[in-house]
Inverse folding.
């Protein structure tokens, strides 16, 4: 058991030595997400009127979708979108 643990630790050290940049990806992803959030916030601020018009134009469609969804939910049926999953 002791030998196996020691071998695992050595293997991890060797792997990290061969792949020094592997964990830097996680930091890059976080930076990308932060940048994307700022962009989305600025875009929504700049296009408030267009977003409002879009929502108003589709309000009835959304209400009907939610009525149907809740009707199916109350009856214990899965939403029709998920029915044909393989």
């Amino acid at each position: 058991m002791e030998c196996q643990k020691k071998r695992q630790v050595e293997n991890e050290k060797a792997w990290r030595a061969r792949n020094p940049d592997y964990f830097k990806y996680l930091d890059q992803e976080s930076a990308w997400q932060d940048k994307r959030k700022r962009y989305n916030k600025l875009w929504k601020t700049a296009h408030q009127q267009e977003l409002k018009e879009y929502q108003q134009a589709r309000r009835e469609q959304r209400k009907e979708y939610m009525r149907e969804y809740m009707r199916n939910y109350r009856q214990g049926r899965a939403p029709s979108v998920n029915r044909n999953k393989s």
Q: What stands out?
A: The chain has a mean pLDDT of 87. Residues 48-77 form one domain.
